[in-house]
Amino acid sequence: MTVVYAERGGLITTIFVEPGDTVTAGQPLLVVEDSATQLAAEEAKLTYSSAKISLAAARISQRQAKAILGRQSELNRRGVVASHHLEDAETAFLMASNSVEQAEAAVAKARLAVQVAEDRVSDLTVRAPIAGTVTRLSAHVGGAVLDRTDAIHDGVGLLTIARLDSLAIDADVAEKAIIGLETNLEGEAVLDAFPDRPFTFALLRVAPEVNAAKGTVRLRLTPIDPPPGIRPGMAVRVRIALPPPNSQSTNHQGANLQ
C-alpha cells in the first residue's frame, strides 16, 4: 500500500477519485490551492517578461552603438574626426555590449525562476505515485492539508493506493513454531470475509528478528490465486503444513492482508 501526500500545503479545491477507483501512475487525484504559490508564479512570469523587454532594448542600443562606431571608424580613417571621437564610440559600444550580456543573464535567471515557480504550482496537483486501486480517501473538498514533510511527521495522508494484484499476508507466529519454516513452503489461507473461498499461499520471508514483547516472529506470505474482492486490512486465517521430519502444521488466526 502507498500513502499519498501533498507536496505543498493548502486547501483542497477538487477531488477526482473515490474509494474503489482504479488509477494509473501520474494520474491527477486532487488539486490543492495555495494563493502564495500561485502569486509567486505570476510574479515570476512578470519579471521574466520585463527582463525580455530590457534585453530587447539593450540589443537595440548595442546595434545603434555598433552603427555609430562604424561611422566614426570610417570618418577617422578619412581624417575627418579626431581619434578621441572614435575612442568614445568604442567605449559606448563596449558598454552597450556589456549591458546586453547583463540583460541576457537576467533573462536566464528569470526564466529559471519561472520554471521553479511553475513546478511548485504543478505540485499543487497531487498525482498517483503508482498504478492501483484507491482503498482509502480521507481528503475532502475545502479541507486543509499539510505539506509532505509535516504530513509524514504527523502521519496524516490524503489517501491510500494499493495494488490488489500484489497483496501480501503478514502473520505473526510464536517463535517456537518457526522450526522447519522455509521460504516457498505453501499453506492454506481463509479470509474471514470469504470463509468458503480458501486459497493457497507461499512463504516469502521469515523476519530475522523476534518481537521480544510478544514472543512472535513475522511471516510474509504471498497469495496464490486469491479470490476476487480481497482488500488490504482483511483478517485472514492461515495454516502451513511443515515437511518431514517436522510433520505438523502452524496455524495463525490473526494475519492481515497488506
TrEMBL record:
SUPFAM superfamilies: HlyD-like secretion proteins (SSF111369). Pfam families: Beta-barrel_RND_2. GO terms for molecular function: efflux transmembrane transporter activity. GO terms for cellular component: efflux pump complex. Signal peptide: none annotated. Residues 169-241 form the CusB-like beta-barrel domain. Belongs to the membrane fusion protein (MFP) (TC 8.A.1) family. PANTHER family: HLYD FAMILY OF SECRETION PROTEINS, MULTIDRUG RESISTANCE PROTEIN MDTA. This is Efflux transporter, RND family, MFP subunit.
